[in-house]
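Re: the 245-residue chain
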Amino acid sequence: MKKFISGLALISLIFSYSCSMSSNAKRMIASVGIGCAAGLAAGAIYDESQRKRDTKDKSNNFQRQITSTLQMEKKKPQNKGKIVGLGVGCLAGVGAGFYLNTMYDNMSEEMGKEGIALEKVAGADGETQALLVKMDGGISFEDGKADLKGKGKENVDKIAEALAAYPETKVNVSGHANRTGKEDLNVTLSKARAEEAKSALSEAGIEDNRFQDVKGLGSSKPTPGLKPEDGANRRVEIEIVPKKG
């Protein structure tokens, strides 16, 4: 019964979340988000002996429905070039791994057009536990500066669009520097770069409570394959993780 009540509460959340959206976005949230809430409530009406098996079957079927729905939405002319997301309640309904994998599949094409690389980060169980966004020079900084350049700002706006479409995620932002000068100055500079990217995401509509960690790592983690002093290490990386609880 608790699951059933939770499902009803989630439906309410979904509709409140969709109020400010376009009619097309509202239909998307309704078709996908309500299904997530219904999936959570479904277990309450099964006998305990059958619940685990039925819940697994229902979850797998619902995941296929979500994939199919997203594919159809992305094919619509009005959605060309847009990130089509999932509604509130879906994370609990389908699981973190599937949620992030769906986000990855949905984001990759559009992000790739902007020169933004997206990587899956797997946990010990092999499930996707985070997505790492790398700008490939899109977010880049001049030597000794933390100002976000024009192309970098455009890329941040695209990332903000994706984060808005997947509301049940949080963000870790890390700033980096190339290895020149004193490391304490590199750490300060890299933190300023991370804060600059955070501010740009905030200006694009991402709420403060979505940011989990914002830090500067100095020159301690150069891009794989690059020398520590290479200027391409002046960058910001964004890690997308599922909300907990």
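The mean pLDDT is 76.
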